[in-house]
Amino acid sequence: MSTFNRSKSINQRTLGVGTPRTASFGSPRVKLTSVSHWFRWLVVIGALFPFSIAIAGGYFYLLPSLTQAFQGFGTSKLNDSMEECNLFEGNWVFDESYPLYNASECPFAEQGFNCLGNGRRDEDYLRWRWKPKRCDIPRFNVHGILERLRNKRVVFVGDSMSRTQWESLICLLMTGVEDKNSVYEINNHNITKRIRFLSVRFNSFNFTVEFFRSVFLVQHVWMPRHVPRRVRSTLKLDKMDDISNQWVNSDILIFNTGHWWVPQKLFETGCYFQVANTVRLGMSIPVAFRMALDTWASWVEKTIDTNRTHVFFRTYEPSHWSEQSHRLCNMSDIPISEAGGKDISVFSDTILEAVNNLTVPITVLHITSMSALRSDAHVGKWNGNPSVPDCSHWCLPGVPDMWNEILLSYLLSQS
After folding, report:
1. 393 is catalytic
2. What InterPro entries does this protein map onto (predicted)?
3. Residue 238 known to be catalytic
4. Most exposed among 24, 70, 89, 137, judged by the fewest C-beta atoms under 10 Å?
């Protein structure tokens, strides 16, 4: 990882006077001419010396300011010191300049995530910014980012949490577009929970931000043959999702998975694991998850040109359900100071391990710990259906915006 503090090397030159030509000093005229010649050189050197000092001083004084000025226009200070700064270790600070957009004015923010529009009265949850301990995330500069994304293809792959991040990024980017009608879904599709593909085009900048629904990343097959009655479907852990070929040739590719890898979404619906032609009824979820990630990692190494495509994997996002009932949220008014164990996730650990074993560069967006502190920012009862609270998804604007600010920081550091 690169850092925010950029080192500077200054090459200093020393001025020297070469050895003077030899001359015959036999006559007074030659001697006088030589003295006059040396006097003129001393005058010139005397005049230049203070000027050189002023130039050098100005160089040292102005260079940092100029560097910062250029960094402020859509570039970041991440270039050299990311190894010294863990972007995901820090705390949430109150910032009146947030939020960065209004969900009611963004046509791509689902109504179910627009907590303010759904009756939430307090607004403080909108005004928290993530602050790493040893550095700063560059302030969001929408015009610089739009230029950086010109002619690019951004692809999100994953579950509904990925779709929320996709919506967040589009809303952030639209704040810099004058003609809002130039931003549109290419197939005129509405955003729904089950739709497998959405693509929003920013026509003025010739780029798309796409979402592919692939909650497991591997193939989900219905009604396999010659299996016990309780098996209604299987996950082929050794096969990538059948739409994975559409993720290739992207410039920015962001993955996530995890929230569907639970008994309620798997075994209780009759979904079990399959390797080759064998259904593994006794395989545990953590083991299956690791096998699926190994399949994903192999696919990335064999299929994705990482010289073109910057691949990200976002870690697991914790929920904040009440310990007494899974129908109630354990929400706070402000970010909490202790994660209470929610910063620990077997899914996140497995993702980190799988990426660490890759032979190609992948960037992990390790957002588990920072998100665990935001028990104030879930949709909760402000989802348009108060009788069914949502303690997993996030309000927009909100936490996913910060994930995207970090994502964009990595991209801008490559400029």
Report:
1. yes
2. TBL, TBL_C, TBL_N
3. no
4. 24
Instruction: Check if 160 is active-site.
Output: yes
Catalytically annotated residue among 2, 76, 160, 244: 160
**Catalytic, out of 310, 366, 378, 393:** 393
Same domain, 171 and 41: no
Query: Is the CB of residue 135 less than 8 Å from the CB of residue 85?
Result: yes
| 30 and 165 both lie in a single domain | no
Instruction: Name the domain boundary from 71, 105, 132.
Output: 71
CA–CA separation, 196 vs 163, rounded Å?
10
Q: Select which of 159, 241, 376, 390 is catalytic.
A: 390
Spatial distance between the Cα atoms of 284 and 403, rounded to a whole number of angstroms? 30
Q: State whether 61 and 94 are in the same domain.
A: no
Identify whether residues 35 and 150 lie together within a single domain: no
Q: Are residues 35 and 143 in the same domain?
A: no
- What pLDDT is attached to residue 323? 81
**The pair of three-digit structure tokens given for residue 299, joined into one six-digit string:** 């696919």
Residue at 77 is within a domain: no
> Which 8-state DSSP code applies to residue 82?
B
| 279-335 residue pLDDT tens | 999 999 999 999 999 999 999 999 999 999 999 999 999 999 988 777 889 999 999
138 shares a domain with 194: yes
